[in-house]
Amino acid sequence: MNAQFAHVAGGLALNAAPGAKQKNDAATVFPASAADASTIALADGSMSLRITREQAADSHAETANGYVVYRGGQSGNVDVLERALPGGFDELLTFATAPRAPEVRYVIALEHGVAGSASWATPSNFWTRCGTPRLRASAPEIMDADCIPHEVRFALEGCSADHDGRGPWGRPVTTAGADRCTLRATWDSNIRYRRCSIRSSRRLRRRCRPRSSSIAR
């Protein structure tokens, strides 16, 4: 086992650096198999989500250079790399060939403390009962065979969501109305494949920022 990760209940978690005093705002547990769910929870215990990719394969987790790697972790011989961050995690999927459909679907179980959800433009947000956005999925992108980035679109399905572009404070919270949502990431079907990569991030809202392009594995 890579020294950066430790076995915990439910899978693998990032080890804190020796002597580190910085408090993680959220912690992620990656599953032992890509077919199982990742869990992201706020450090104060006020909110948690379980995230599973549809069509995930039963690929055993490996660790290297700060990543949890699932070789062929998605159907269609798609490799999956996960990287833990202080406020959440980054995910990188690599497509050696074109998938049957240009999409990835995530089932998000609203485990604890989630009062509502919202879809403002591209990101998806999950908030507390007082209407404070705490966790979000940042806008992903896909790199084609020529290392040119392309837009990836998010759509939240299977639960109610607030589509009002204003901040959620001072107005009623739109409740999810379900214990799970499906987050669908789609992109144009005419891009060139050959180790194309799609990168997305789930982290605390106040830590989100535009990500630079990342190369494929």
Explain this structure.
This protein is mainly β. The protein has a single domain, classed as Beta-galactosidase, Chain A, domain 5, CATH 2.70.98. It has no helices and 17 strands. It has strands at residues 5-8, 11-14, 26-30, 38-42, 48-53, 62-64, 67-74, 78-85, 88-95, 103-112, 116-119, 124-127, 133-143, 149-151, 153-157, 180-186, 196-204. Strands 6, 7, 8, 9, 11, 12, 13, 14 and 17 form a nine-stranded antiparallel sheet that branches. An eight-stranded antiparallel sheet has the order 1-2-3-4-5-10-16-15, with no helix packed on it. Strand 6 (62-64) and strand 7 form a beta hairpin. The protein is globular, with a radius of gyration of 17 Å.
Order of helices and strands: EEEEEEEEEEEEEEEEE
| CATH class assignment | Mainly Beta
Low-pLDDT runs of 5+ residues are 203-217
Number of domains: 1
Overall pLDDT: 79
Q: Summary?
A:
With 217 residues, this protein is mainly β. It has no helices and 17 strands.
